[in-house]
Amino acid sequence: MPELVLDVAIEKPGFSLEVSERVALDEITALFGPSGSGKTTLLRIIAGLEPAARGSVVFDGQVWQDDKRFVPAHERAVGYVFQDTRLFNHLTVEGNLRFALRHGRSRASIGMSEVISALDLESLLPRRPASLSGGEQQRVAIGRALLTSPRVLLMDEPLSSLDTARKREIVSYIEALPGRFSIPALYVTHDLDEVARLSNRMLLLSVGRIAARGSVGEILERIDLWPSTGRLEAGSVIEARVERHEYGMTHLAFETRTLQIPAVDEVPGKVLRLRVHARDVAVATEPPRNLSIRNVLPVTIKRIDLDATVHAELLLGVGAQTLRARITRDALEDLGLAEGQQVHALIKSVLFEGRL
Description:
Layout: E1 3-12, E2 15-24, E3 28-32, H1 39-47, E4 54-59, E5 62-65, E6 78-81, H2 93-103, H3 112-118, H4 134-146, E7 152-156, H5 164-181, E8 185-189, H6 192-198, E9 201-206, E10 209-215, H7 216-221, H8 226-229, E11 235-246, E12 249-254, E13 257-262, E14 271-277, E15 281-284, E16 295-306, E17 311-318, E18 321-328, H9 329-335, E19 342-347, E20 351-355
Parallel strand pairs: 3-8, 3-9, 6-7, 7-8
Antiparallel strand pairs: 1-2, 1-4, 4-5, 9-10, 11-12, 11-14, 12-13, 14-20, 15-19, 16-17, 16-19, 17-18
């Protein structure tokens, strides 16, 4: 697993960035943060596109930048996927891909046919970028980056300009890239749905500094990070295994219990990553009856966090996994809830984020 070692700083008008971090790049690592936090600037420093940056960038033992040298962008083993694709409009899709192949690294290890197949580009080859949808353009841009035979992909919010339908069209392609090409990716986004779908681990950037690092689930559960992750986005990322499909629903084995979600096209036995917002989890002290909510689980209150407003945040244990629930302080007091207590979690909504 390659390691990226950063000790960098840069000053810009009204903004400064300082990052000292060791990142083990495994599959897709998310670099998350609100707009203006410095995500794109950090990615550009890694790529060699910010020559004014001070400090060092070392990838897998290779020094790309320090106080003695600066390896230019075209000599760094990175494939950069820009937010706006930056395709050559005077070339066809095939022309764009062949340009990358010709100007890629001499150790070219990824071929045209492999990229065309992985990204379903065959039918697009004779067309020009202006005739493509946003999702199709981004697939071509990813293909072009791959054909430079990089050792790491740097992806700068590749879905941000796409509508929901186009995002769904392309996200499965991105999800499959590390496994298919054995190339890790550092993925910049300000969308937690993308993080939960694509990444197992994340770095949280806030005002030019790394505020947290760890698994996606750990960071989404931390209420102290809400100023950066967003209060309404708080919740949990859990794993469950497909058991069967019935009456338009998919039944999932979750710890020793069963969850139901709207049917997904996954075979029994497949392990899925799911996201549950804290706002979608209610709590009952006794087994509820006559409910339309299908997902009711016995849980243990592991921790109670009181915020500065009217809410209480509960961390609920379900076997080896956890859920978050947001209730009012009034409900907390009325129900007499306490840490260690056995209660029931009523889950109103479960989001399917991806396959594991």
